[in-house]
Amino acid sequence: MSRAKGNIAEDKAVCYLEENGYLIVERNFYSRFGEIDIIAAKGDVLHFVEVKSAQEYEVAIENITKTKLSRFIKTVDVYLKKNALDVAFMIDAVIVVDNEISIIENITF
Fold first, then answer.
1. Sign of CA dihedral 56, 62, 63, 69
2. How is the chain split into domains, by residue range?
3. Most exposed among 58, 60, 76, 90, judged by the fewest C-beta atoms under 10 Å?
4. What's the mean per-residue pLDDT of the chain?
5. Closest CA to 71 of 21, 36, 28, 19
6. What is the dihedral of CA 68, 53, 55, 64, to 10 degrees?
7. What is the enclosing helix (H) or strand (E) of 93?
C-alpha cells in the first residue's frame, strides 16, 4: 500500500475514534522497532492503535502478523518508558475497508 493510501486510512481511523469518544494523543510515533499509527485515550485507558487497510477485511486482518505485533509491542514499551507512564493500556487495530471501519480491541497472539 502506498504511503498516501495509508495516510487516508489513518485519517479515517482518527475520525472514527474521535466520533466514538477517543481523544487522540499522538500520531505516528516511531522507535527503532517500528511505528505506532495512533495513540488515543478513552477513559483511563491508553489505546495504541495499528491501522490496517485493504480491499477485503480478511486481507487487512492477515497483515497483522506475529512479527509485526511483536515489534509493535516493543514500540509501545519504548513509548511508555520514554514518557514515564504507568497506565492501563490496550493494543487495538482499526480496520479500514473502503468506507467501513471497525475496531478490534486488545489484540494478542
1. positive
2. 3-104
3. 58
4. 93
5. 36
6. 20
7. strand 88-97
CA of 46: how far to CAs of 58, 66, 70, in Å? 26, 22, 18
Q: What is the Cα–Cα distance from 2 to 5, expressed in whole angstroms?
A: 5
Q: How far is CA 35 from the centre of its chain?
A: 9
The C-alpha cell of 4 is what?
A: 498516501
Q: What is the DSSP letter of 33?
A: S
Checking if the pLDDT of 28 tops 90, the result is: yes
% helix, strand, coil for the chain, step of 5: 35, 35, 25
The CATH architecture that domain 3-104 belongs to is 3-Layer(aba) Sandwich (3.40)
Burial label for 24, CB within 10 Å (0-12, 13-18, 19+), is middle
Distance CA 98, CA 35 (A): 23
Residue 2 pLDDT:
63
